[in-house]
Design goal:
The strands form two sheets. This protein has a three-stranded parallel sheet, sandwiched between helices. It has a two-stranded antiparallel ribbon with strand order 1-2. The chain is built from five helices and five strands. The protein is an alpha/beta fold.
Length: 176
């Protein structure tokens, strides 16, 4: 799992999860967790996405997922009046499957641009077929990963993705 590449504690890395289909839903806000197991439990829920299709709907709406992710970065706890901690690097990773409908292109680009303007470093992992919006999801082309299917592609991508995210930290343990 990608989260295995991080030391998770209240002073280091906080991870939030958004599960999305036609409607996105927050599985957990990026609050400090007490241990790795709690985060892994939430990550496991993402792999069971088929169980939630009746709630999430279809087709997947990437723009809504990105907008919800942006809201999580602006209010990481989900509680009123909470603000992000200063100096904490904001990193988003979105997993997509298939191209978005052509009429969703502008909404996806706008949501992606808004995240970048907020200082979020974005990574995108996509399963074929990818659409023209895919290239604009990540901060730059070095943060884009596409594959034929997740089962075969993720085992080779996750170590690189984890390493790439981790190199954004300086020698004090803080993100640059």
């Amino acid at each position: 799992m990608l989260v295995d590449y991080f030391v998770l504690d209240e002073n280091n890395v906080n991870i939030g999860f958004v599960l999305y289909g036609k409607e996105p839903t927050i599985l957990s806000h990026p609050q400090p967790f007490k241990d790795q197991a709690e985060t892994n439990t939430r990550a496991t829920l993402l792999t069971q996405r088929e169980n939630y299709m009746n709630v999430l709907g279809s087709p997947p709406n990437v723009a809504r997922a990105l907008n919800l992710m942006r809201a999580m970065f602006q209010n990481p706890s989900g509680y009123p009046m909470e603000r992000p901690r200063r100096g904490v690097m904001k990193i988003g990773v979105i997993f997509t499957w298939g191209a978005q409908p052509i009429d969703a292109f502008d909404d996806v680009i706008r949501a992606s641009d808004d995240l970048r303007m907020d200082g979020v470093t974005m990574y995108a992992v996509g399963r074929s077929p990818i659409g023209p919006e895919f290239a604009r999801l990540a901060t730059d082309e070095c943060k884009l990963f596409s594959m034929g299917n997740f089962q075969e592609g993720l085992p080779s991508v996750l170590p690189y993705l984890g390493s790439s995210i981790c190199t954004r930290k300086d020698n004090t343990g803080l993100f640059k």
